[in-house]
Amino acid sequence: MPAKRNAMKSTPQHANIANVPLARIVQLVQRNEANNRPALEQATGLGRTAARQRIDTALRLGLIEESGSGKSTGGRTPRLLRFRSGAALLALCAISQTYAVVGISDLDGTIIDRRRLDNSIFTDPDIALNRMVDAISDMTHDRDLPLWAVGVGVTGIIDFATGTVISPPVMPEWHDVNVRSPLESRLHAPVWVDNDVNLLAVEAQRTLTNENTDNLVYLKIGQGIGAGLIVNGAIHRGADGAAGDIGHVAVPGSNVPCRCGKTGCLEAVAAGWGMTAQAVESSDDSPYLQQCIADHGEPTLADLFSPAGAADHVVGRILRTSADAIGETLSSIINLLNPSLVVIGGEGITIGEAYLARLRECVYRRSLPPTTRNLRIVATTETVTDNLEGAANLIRRQLFGDELPNWIDDGTPVDYMLASHAR
Ligand SMILES: [Zn+2]
Fold it and tell me: Would you identify the family this protein belongs to, as annotated (predicted)?
C-alpha cells in the first residue's frame, strides 16, 4: 500500500494559522478581487502596517508583482498589484483508453505546450508514466522556470489521498497502480491525481460563469459513462473515490450482458461499446449501419451520434434507448443531490438536440418538481477529449486554496514538499 502521507496533503488540513493573512492577500490578488494596497487592507481587515508587511512578503516571495498605477480616488494613485502567473510551471497529464496527453501551463492554468503521446502506452502503466515524465521533462527543459506541481486525470476510480488508481474497468492493467509516487520522485514536485470526470466537472464550474455551478452534476458519455459531482462548490469524491461511478448501475428491465460480468448495466445499454454492439447486431435492418461497416468496419460511437446516424431509424432507436436509460439514472441522482445544473459531455461525440430533449423529458417525468424547479440540463458544445485544463484547475485549487497557508512559509510548494520530507 502506498503511504497516505504526502508532502502536500490531499485533503484540507488545519492551515498554518499565522500565514492565513498572507495567504489571503495572495488569493485576493490571484483571483483579481483586490489589486492595490488600500483594497487589500479593506478586504482583509488588516491595519495598514500589518497589510504592508504581508504585501511586502508576497512581493519578496515573487508570488505577486507591481504592475503600474491605478486610478486615483482622491489621494495618491495606488500602485497596482497582480499575481505572477509566470513565476513557475504546472505539468498536466491526462490518460484514458483513447488518449494519453501531457502538457504544461502557467500558474493561471493557461496551457503553454501540449503533446499527444501514442495512446497504446495505456496498456503498460510503467511505460506510460515514464513516457509522460520524459515528455514533461522535455517541455520544461528549455524554459528557465521551476515546476511547482503536477496534475493527472485518469479514467477510473482514484484514491485521491494516495494518488492510486482503483480497478478501472477499461484499463485493468492500472488496477492498484500508484501514479503519484513515480511522478513525484522523478519530477520533484507535488502531484495530485483525480478521476477524469471530476476534472471535467471542476472545469465546467470554472468556465460556465453564467450558470449556478455550486451544485453540479457532470455526466460524461463515452466508451463508458461516469459522473462528476460538485456539492456546495467542492468535488464530492465519496469515502473511496467512487462517487459518480455510475457505469454499472442497473437499468430496470435490461438483461444485456456487461463487460463487468453482470447484466443490464447502464454502460452496456447506454454508452460506447454497448451501443456499438447493439448497432452491429441490428445492422441488417439499417442501410446506414451497413454503409458504416463497409466503410470502416464496426460502427463507432461517432457514427451513431452523427446527424446521419440520428436520422436512421435503427440508430434512432438505439439513441432513444440510451437517452431513456441515462435519463432514468440521472433522475435518481437529481432526486438525491438536487443540483441546479447538469452538464452532459460526449467524449469524442457531439450530443445532438434530439438526444438531449429525450433525456430531459425522461428526467422531468421521473423527478419530483421541487428538485427540478431550478434545474438546467445542458450539453457541452465541444466534444470532450483530454482535459488538461481541468488538471490545471485542480492543482490551482490545491496550491492556492486551503494549502496556501501551509506552503507559503517555505516560499514554493516544492520547497515545502522537500522540507516536509526532511521533517
Ligand atoms: Zn457492468
Answer: Belongs to the ROK (NagC/XylR) family.
**Run of H or E residues at 158:** strand 157-159
Residue 272 CA to ligand 1 center (angstroms) comes to: 13
DSSP string, 370-414: HHHTT-EEEE-SSPB---HHHHHHHHHHHHHTTTHHHHGGGSSHH
Residue 56, number of CB atoms within 10 A of its CB: 10
Say how many Å lie between the CA of residue 52 and the centre of ligand 1: 59
- In the chain, domain spans: 17-83, 89-200+386-422, 213-373
Cα 224 to ligand 1 centre (Å): 10
What pLDDT does 154 receive?
92
* Rounded Cα–Cα distance for residues 379 and 389 (Å): 18
The helix/strand/coil state of 358 is: helix
CATH number of 213-373, picked from 3.40.50.1370, 3.80.10.10, 3.50.50.60, 3.30.420.40: 3.30.420.40
Domain 89-200+386-422 architecture? 2-Layer Sandwich (3.30)
CA 117 to ligand 1 centroid distance, Å? 29
Cα(261) to ligand 1 centroid in Å equals 6
Supply 191's cell numbers. Answer: 502531484
Average pLDDT for 146-171: 91
- Segment 250-257 shows an average pLDDT of 91
Centre of ligand 1 from the C-alpha of residue 226, in Å: 12
Phi, psi of 149 (to 5 degrees): -170, 160
Measured CA distances, 391 to 34, 104, 191, 206, 298 (Å): 26, 10, 11, 12, 33
Going from the Cα of 14 to the center of ligand 1, the distance in angstroms, rounded, reads 40
What string of DSSP letters covers 2-61?
Answer: --S--SS-SS-----GGGHHHHHHHHHHHTTS--BHHHHHHHH---HHHHHHHHHHHHHT
Ligand 1 centroid vs 258 CA: distance in angstroms? 5
Q: How far is the CA of 391 from the centre of ligand 1 (A)?
A: 27
Report residues near ion ligand 1: CB below 5 Å: 248, 258, 260, 262, 265
- CA 248 to ligand 1 centroid distance, Å: 4
User: What tens digit of pLDDT does each residue of 319-373 get?
Assistant: 999 999 999 999 999 999 999 999 999 888 889 999 999 999 999 998 888 888 8
